[in-house]
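Regression check, heme C case 228:
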Amino acid sequence: MQLFHPSLNSIARLLVFALPLSGAGTGVGLAIVYRSGYITGQGEVIDQPVPFSHLHHVSQLGIDCRFCHTGVETSSFAGVPPTKTCMQCHQQMWVGSEMLNPIRESYRANKPIKWERVNNAPDYVYFNHSIHIGKGVGCVSCHGQLDKMPLTFQSKSLLMEWCLDCHRAPEKHLRPLDKVTSMVWKASDVVNAETGKPYTQEELGAKLKKEHNVRDSKVITSCSMCHR
Ligand code: HEC
Ligand code: HEC
Ligand code: HEC
Ligand code: HEC
Ligand code: HEC
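Current build output:
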């Protein structure tokens, strides 16, 4: 039997040597392990009490993200919906479905469902949804095509390099504020009134960067932005 995932063998060996060296060794070891996709959790489906499908609810039923993730525009947390949000529909729909037993039980007993975390940044990192949404960064830039996921998984590494990549050139990702939850929007949907041609992401992003008052990259890549 193999104790480690094959790609972890060399990392595990490194860890064994790095750890005893000093207190800082722990940091080095952790940093190396964090780099492995196996450890970041990227692409991995998490078992949930109910197999909730974004594909069904977002893409086929057309429900906006904010109907369920109500905190996303106003607070640091997007939040996961309470059972009563599901029951607004499921009191009438799919009432015989066994898949929904835990939802009905939670409603009856007035006990919240224990949804497992999918995306998780370490505690020493400061992250805030509302600032990103308020500056025109779409959910899809950080969470991928939820509208195509029958089961939810973490789409990006969430590593520091990934955050910094965007903070160095946010114009590659900015969109109009009323399109932040769209999973299909693209810059070329917007016509540049001056040229009569569809925008490229770079052109529109640069314009939106000014309009949304996005600060200089030097400011938003400084360590104290995310490590407070
Ligand atoms: C009908 C309600 C509903 C809608 C609409 C909905 N979600 Fe969700 N979402 C959930 C539930 C329930 C979970 C927890 C279960 C899971 O992870 O699948 C969840 C989980 C997530 C997660 C993972 C949470 C974590 O722990 O990291 C992300 C990211 C997410 N949703 C993004 C979106 C985005 C983006 C949209 C719009 C495109 C959206 N959701 C629309 C109900 C909804
Ligand atoms: C706006 C109405 C609405 C809301 C709110 C809603 N659902 Fe649904 N849900 C539906 C409909 C309609 C279907 C049937 C979809 C189909 O058959 O294509 C469905 C199907 C399902 C199914 C079974 C089908 C499948 O494969 O996904 C599950 C499980 C489910 N919903 C869970 C949830 C949970 C959990 C919540 C709350 C986080 C929720 N739903 C909120 C309308 C809703
Ligand atoms: C700039 C990147 C970014 C954008 C944009 C973004 N998210 Fe997130 N999201 C994250 C990160 C990072 C986490 C993990 C946060 C943590 O662990 O503290 C997360 C966590 C979540 C969670 C888990 C619960 C929570 O609040 O931590 C949900 C649900 C979620 N996001 C939904 C959304 C929705 C819906 C949108 C769009 C309206 C969105 N996110 C936009 C990066 C982003
Ligand atoms: C796709 C682009 C993108 C990604 C990915 C991204 N950010 Fe940002 N972030 C932005 C933009 C745009 C701003 C707004 C800058 C401004 O207001 O000047 C911002 C602002 C911030 C701020 C400033 C908040 C404040 O109160 O001023 C923090 C903190 C932050 N991001 C943390 C993170 C972390 C941590 C990650 C990775 C887990 C991350 N961001 C990933 C685009 C991104
Ligand atoms: C845009 C947000 C952001 C900025 C700016 C940022 N970090 Fe990070 N940092 C993160 C995130 C997210 C993690 C956790 C994920 C990981 O380990 O990559 C992290 C992890 C770390 C770690 C522990 C793991 C590792 O990669 O070594 C150290 C040390 C660190 N950051 C130092 C710094 C320093 C020094 C700066 C300034 C030069 C800085 N960070 C700027 C987001 C940021």
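Comparison notes: Confidence is low (pLDDT under 50) at residues 1-30. The two ends are 43 Å apart (CA to CA). No diff flagged against the previous build.
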